[in-house]
Structures are given as C-alpha cells and as structure tokens.
Amino acid sequence: MAKPGDTLVLFLLIGVILYFIIRQIPLSGAKWGKKEEEPVQIKGEVPDLLRAHGFEVMHSKERVPLVFGVDDAVYESRVFIDYIARREDELYVVVVARDRKPLRMSGAGLRDFFLPYYLLVQPDGILYVDKEKKTVKVVHLEIPELTFSKKSRRKWPLYATAVVLLLFIIWLVQ
What we know:
The chain has helices at about 5-25, 45-50, 105-120, 155-174; strands spanning about 25, 30, 55-70, 75-85, 90-95, 125-130, 135-140. With about 170 residues, it is α+β, with helices and mostly antiparallel strands. It is flat.
C-alpha cells in the first residue's frame, strides 16, 4: 500500500540516479560540472631539453607507492618517476641520470635499471636524460608474451583416435 510520501521519494531516487548518469556523459570533450584544466607548462632544464628533442612533458615527479606482502609481513616501498613525456601518440617514462646511480651499458645493467619502470607503466619507450652531457637516449624494451601451459606427454590418445578414424574411412570406402 502506498503512503503519501512514497511518490516523492521515488522521484527523488530517480533524480539522483539520472544526475549520476548525466555526470558520466562527456559534453564536447569535458565532463559536465567540471572546468577544463589548462595544461601547466613544466619548467626546468630537463623539460627544456626534452622539448628540444621533440617531446611534450606531461607530468613531473610522480611517486608510485608499492606494497609487498611476504607471508604475514607487509613491506612498503616506492618508485619515483622523474617525468612522463609524449611524442605524437607515444608515451614515455623519463629517467634522469644521477651520479650516485650510474647506468651500466650491458644487457643485465639495462634490465636491472629500466625493467621496473617498464613493468609499472608499460610505456612505448623510456627516455634516459643526462643533464650534464645534454643527451636524451630512447630505450625500447621488447618482452615476448609468455605462455605457461602444461604440455601433455601422452600422445597415444591422439594416435589411437587417428588410427580409428582411418579404419572407419577405409571401412566406408569398401
């Protein structure tokens, strides 16, 4: 049985639901009720160097928190990303060279240095910027897709099925 306030509550619920649905619909590139933010020009020696090499700097000094659980213990750490840059439709993580953490130009050295950044962000490339030498090195990483499937060592059911099918075909032909 309907009570006098039930209709009002129903319309209020429908209105709230419609409000949240409409907030999610983009209108000419911006969401309703939110102002479009103007891009902030990031200043500094490294962003200027990146711009000179044709990159657009999007973010600076990103801190990515990490939490590791080992058995019952919890360990926290973080990874710092110096900059995020873009060129055309490609996204790059920017790592600035540091004296206390030099880059070893070997397969293992490059793996140990750049793999965490690649696994975190999965960018199109990583830019290694040396402010002293004013160089920008583009690092690309190719990781093959790995499939871990349990291979069956028992092939006799396949062979038995093939023999039975062959015998059946011979029987049909005669």
